Amino acid sequence: MLASFRNTKVMLRSAQQVRAATALTKPILASRLYSSPAPQSSPKPNQFTMGQSSGGGKKGGGRSNLIFGFHPFAIFASLTLLGSGYLMIVKPFLQWTDKQKEERDDKKAEVEGASYTAEQIAAFPFDKKTVVFVLGGPGSGKGTNSARLVSDFGFVHLSAGDLLREEQKRPVSQYGELIAHYIREGLIVPHEITIGLLRNAMMDHPESDRFLIDGFPRNLVQAKAFEDTVCKAKKVLYFECPESILLERLLDRGKTSGRSDDNIESIKKRFRTYVNDSKPVIDAFAEQGKVITISCQGTMDAVYKNTEEHMNKFFKEIGQEPTPSASASAGKKD
Ligand code: UDP
Ligand code: MG
User: Fold this and answer.
1) Is 51 annotated as a binding residue?
2) Which ligand approaches the C-alpha of residue 331 most closely?
3) Confidence check: pLDDT of 253 > 90
4) Whole-angstrom Cα distance, residue 160 to residue 140?
5) Letter string b/e over residues 87-110, b meaning 16 or more CB atoms within 10 A of that residue's CB
6) Mean pLDDT of 94-114
7) Which residues contact 137 (CB under 8 A, 6 or more apart)?
8) Strand blocks (E) in the chain
9) Which residues contact 232 (CB under 8 A, 6 or more apart)?
10) Separation of CA 139 and ligand 2 centre (Å)
11) Where is this region: LID (predicted)?
12) Helix residue spans in 170-219 (DSSP H)
């Protein structure tokens, strides 16, 4: 009785061993059914040696060519699918959301200029005004020289950057946050806002015939929009200055200016915007023969003296007295 019980136990144990052995050999058998048999001596492949160029692995057939358990073709096909999925779905979607954002910004901007009625705007003699754009890299001396031109030639000085900063600070402004973001990032605020502010500022000075518009237009779209909706500039003053000097000046100015964009990160972004977007505007005006180039190197007095001489010449050319007929300034500093 005891013996037969022991025998049963032995039989049961051997049955378990058989089952265990079957479980182990099953995948090997299965793999042999679908691939050419590996030689007896070859080591059993495992997930870390699979796909490596060991002789046994190679001769083992399909399984041994897998990469981390996947067939290379499957990987290639998935990557291709992912790539085309990105190009066909994700990229257009991202472009669409960017466009939506731009349209939202433009819509907001349409409201700008509401301080004058459409009739008042239409009746204002923008075309009769002498508009001079003052351009150059950030920190090139646009504001400094503009301030002196105001007292010598009777211009009204409108700094686009200052007008935007004033608008940003106005507690009820709906553009405050938007403007703050664009300025900090060294980007160009949607042109409808800036043009609206400039047009309002010109209309605030109906007595003046001369306007210096400083730091605008900053890209070709702005330039065209201003010409189409306000008026054409008669001349462009371009303060030419190497980037190394601009950087030095801006970092120095940053110690006291309190401006959100006079720090190294914003300065780099502003330089990029200047080279990519603003410099082409100067080139386009140069082709029209409108640009007066002034080197910003030298003392402040020397730079201004050069500017003043060019301005005297310009007024003679257009048959006007250089002496001021009115003076005011809506801008403060460069
Ligand atoms: N800005 C703009 N549109 C303009 C003028 C200025 O978006 O037509 C923004 C832009 O982000 C720019 C910032 O205002 O970097 C400062 O302009 P500002 O003219 O004050 O700079 P500056 O060239 O005098 O250092
Ligand atoms: Mg300025």
Assistant:
1) no
2) 2
3) yes
4) 15
5) eeeeeeeeeeeeeeeeeebeeebe
6) 60
7) 239, 241, 243, 246, 271, 274, 278
8) 130-136, 156-159, 210-214, 235-240, 291-295, 328-329
9) 131
10) 7
11) 252-262
12) 176-184, 191-203
Pocket test for ligand 1, best of 140, 182, 243 (most atoms within 8 A of CB): 182
Task: Give the residue whose CA is nearest to atom 14 of ligand 1.
Answer: 161
Q: CA 317, CA 268: separation in Å to the nearest integer? A: 39
Question: What's the pLDDT tens digit per position in 274-329?
Answer: 999 999 999 999 999 999 999 999 999 999 999 999 999 999 999 999 986 544 44
Residue 273 annotated as binding?
A: no
By the 8 A CB rule, do 200 and 115 touch? yes
| 57 annotated ligand-binding residue | no
User: How high does pLDDT run on average in the chain?
Assistant: 81
Domains, in order of start, for the chain: 110-331 (3.40.50.300)
Number of the ligand closest to the Cα of 215: 1
Cα 254 to chain center, whole Å? Answer: 22
pLDDT at 104: 58
Q: What are the tokens at 276?
A: 């990519």
pLDDT in tens, 136-152: 999 999 999 999 999 99
Task: Tokens 């996947």: give the residue.
Answer: 70
Q: Which residues, by Cβ under 5 Å, contact ligand 2, an ion? A: 143, 161, 215, 334
Q: How confident is the model at residue 114 (pLDDT cuts 50, 70, 90)?
A: low
pTM value is 0.67
Residue pair 324/332 in contact (Cβ under 8 Å)? The answer is no
* H-helix segments, 204-261: 220-229, 243-257
Distance 184 CA to ligand 1 centre (A): 10
Please name every residue paired with 210 in a beta bridge, in sequence order, or none if there are none: 130
- How many CA atoms lie within 13 Å of 170's alpha carbon, on the beta-carbon side? 12
